[in-house]
Design brief:
Length: 357
């Protein structure tokens, strides 16, 4: 499929942030976006790069009413000598289509997805920030546009990719975050949509997050829906715990996002000779380890969060300080390795880095 291009005229070009400007996560967007339409019987058509702008949507569009929506998150990194890299983008595309299948949306052709993404990133390459820890966040998304109110899959969709120059996801940066173990609300149940990257999961997390933020926490740690005991994830990141010499993380049972950073971290740890177990993790086991000094580190992983150390875990009003409230050695090593690969500073024996220019 051809991708048509309408460039933003000089009057529509926006002011880019300067090298010294603080970049919050997800506040500003570049000059262009990639868009494509779908209609049952026609398939995907009208692939185009256009100036960044609003969509005109029918108030009866099914995506607004029944949350048929999926998205992804990945980043473009500015390397040395102006090289531009993506990190394991084919994994995001696969996960996007898996999420789409879960909520009865059409697949997006992997080649056109990749081509559209590379083209729009290269067109807006001047927006990729250069400072270490900053990047151009890429947000592909799809939602249902057919005007109809019966509950069934839509017959029409829009797929689009927008770009946002970002810094750290959390205001804490690389400083450890404080996590509240949620014992009132539930994010996802096995058999539900927890594994899909669909807006509903994030809507389900908002009230708990707001309440936790009100108490001074950065995020909540979700427990399983059935027993309210086993660790799932932290909504914006997968969770890892270093107990003695073993790295532990929750298994992919359907209620946890299949994190690409999660997968990369498991691979790195195993290659470094660190034992990694993906198994059911009782919150009581983790807190017992914290009390007895065996919990050496805790950290979250995600595209936006990268490696985010956890310095405090609070459960039922009991605070547990982890790694003396500092970033631990393994977390720091993982961060350095991932960032090194992503920015083209370190060797990439895994072939994770994709140079696009
Ligand atoms: C990401 O890490 O890309 C995410 O999707 C997390 C969040 C910003 C929704």
């Amino acid at each position: 499929m051809e991708i048509s291009l309408i460039k933003a005229g000089p009057d529509r070009l926006k002011k880019k942030p300067g090298d010294n400007d603080n970049l919050n996560f997800g506040d500003i967007f570049t000059d262009h976006m990639f868009v494509m339409d779908y209609k049952e019987g026609v398939g995907w058509h009208n692939a185009r790069i256009t100036p960044y702008g609003s969509f005109q949507i029918d108030p009866a569009a099914m995506g607004i009413h029944y949350a048929q929506e999926v998205f992804e998150g990945l980043k473009a990194y500015m390397g040395k000598n102006g090289d531009i890299y993506l990190f394991r983008p084919e994994e995001n595309i696969k996960r996007f289509n898996a999420s789409a299948t879960r909520v009865c949306m059409p697949d997006v052709d992997e080649n056109i997805f990749m081509e559209g993404m590379k083209k729009v990133v290269l067109l807006d390459r001047e927006w990729i920030p250069k400072n270490r820890g900053t990047s151009l966040y890429i947000r592909p998304a799809m939602f249902a546009t057919e005007p109809h109110l019966g509950v069934r899959p839509s017959k029409e969709y829009i797929f689009f990719i927008i770009l946002s120059p970002v810094g750290n996801y959390y205001k804490e940066g690389l400083n450890p975050v404080k996590i509240y173990v949620e014992d009132k609300y539930v994010r996802a149940a096995v058999g539900g949509i927890g594994e899909a990257k669909t807006g509903g999961n994030y809507a389900a997390s908002l009230l708990a997050s707001e309440e936790a933020k009100g108490k001074g926490f950065t995020q909540v740690l979700w427990l399983d829906a059935a027993e309210r005991e086993y660790v799932d994830e932290v909504g914006t990141m997968n969770m890892f715990f270093l107990i003695n010499d073993e790295v532990l993380t929750a298994p992919l049972t359907g209620s946890v996002l299949r994190g690409i950073t999660r997968d990369s971290v498991i691979r790195l740890c195993r290659d470094w000779g660190i034992w990694v177990s993906e198994r059911k993790l009782s919150i009581y086991e983790i807190l017992d380890a914290a009390k007895s000094g065996r919990l050496k580190e805790a950290f979250g992983t995600g595209t936006a969060a990268v490696i985010s150390p956890v310095g405090q875990i609070t459960f039922k009003n009991e605070d547990h300080i982890v790694a003396g409230g500092k970033m631990g050695e393994v977390s720091q090593r993982l961060y350095n390795e991932l960032i090194g690969i992503q920015y083209g500073i370190k060797e990439d024996p895994y072939g994770w880095r994709v140079k696009i220019n």
